[in-house]
Amino acid sequence: MTNSEDQRLQLEPNAQVQNIKVNSIKANPYQPRKTFDEARLEDLAGSIRVHGILQPIVLRKTINGYTIVVGERRFRAAQIAGLEAIPAIIKSLTDEDMMELAIIENLQREDLNAIEEAESYRKLMDDLSLTQQEVAQRLSKSRPYIANMLRLLHLPKDVADLVKAGTISGAHGRTLLTVKDTQKMRDIAKQTVKESWSVRYLEAYVNEQFGNKIKKTNSTEPKMKPKMIQQQERQLKEQYGTNISITTNNKKGQITFEFKSEAEFKRLIHQLNDKYNK
């Protein structure tokens, strides 16, 4: 739990675990997560059938029963497992507490992607009228980190979907945002996926193509190149016995052969001529 969540869920000295009927429990209406991985729920349900629920969920009492504060995934798995009642702790919380805790719990998911994380920060700001600085303080993060994540929400939907699917990373997405032409951004995103570009290579490519001032990293050139190009360089190096560099620029490319003497130059020319004349 984060510090803010832990503070709100500190249990009273006399707090007790109670067995609450599953059919009297409802989902948190402020839960930002609308879909759950069915396969993982089935796995958890199988574990619950064997071992039971090891950690009680947290509920708030309502007029018509109970509302989940923390533990909706355990609750759904318990339903699949066929449990009639589950262990729970009852807490007195405000609607604002419910909103915040639901979002914070969502942020702690293992499978959370960068877009969902950014959406959670935006929801905290919108629902609770918080500034970026206030969100940062509540979640023990820096304000620049929150601001950088929120930038991802400006990506076109099809590019954002690539981040959601894990096809490209959030860092890829932030780099693509420096391309102001939306169609060019989409084209570069597709090329990034097709050629498995690293973030470093994408930064260098965008900086070269559009003159954006992107922070450069202390990495060597081969690490910045797509895997396919690195593989071709290695094969050519083995074939010709010298360092070879392949560079691409706006759908054009260049292959550079390195030689350190006239004799080595003549050897390379001879090899290339033999290859061409075969």
Low-confidence stretches: 1-14, 214-223
> Which CATH class of the largest domain?
Alpha Beta
Major β-sheet strand ordering: 1-5-3-4-2
Please give the radius of gyration in angstroms. Answer: 27 Å
Question: Which term fits the overall shape?
Answer: elongated
- Succession of helices and strands: HEEHEEHEHHHHHHHHHHEEH
Distance between the termini: 68 Å
Overall number of structural domains:
4
Helix content: 40-55%
Counting DSSP H or I runs of 4 or more residues, the number of helices is 14
Describe the structure.
By secondary structure, the protein is α/β, with parallel strands linked by helices. It has four domains: 3-109, Conserved hypothetical protein from pyrococcus furiosus pfu- 392566-001, ParB domain (Alpha-Beta Complex); 113-154; 156-224, no CATH class; 232-278, no CATH class. It is built from 14 helices and seven strands. The chain has helices at residues 3-8, 38-51, 72-81, 95-107, 114-128, 132-138, 143-151, 157-164, 170-176, 182-194, 199-210, 221-224, 227-240, 262-277, and strands at residues 18-21, 25-26, 57-62, 65-70, 85-90, 244-249, 252-257. The strands form two sheets. Strands 1-5-3-4-2 form a five-stranded mixed beta sheet. Helix 9 (170-176) runs parallel beside helix 11. The longest helix has 16 residues, at 262-277. It is elongated and about 90 Å long. The termini are far apart. The relative contact order is 0.08.
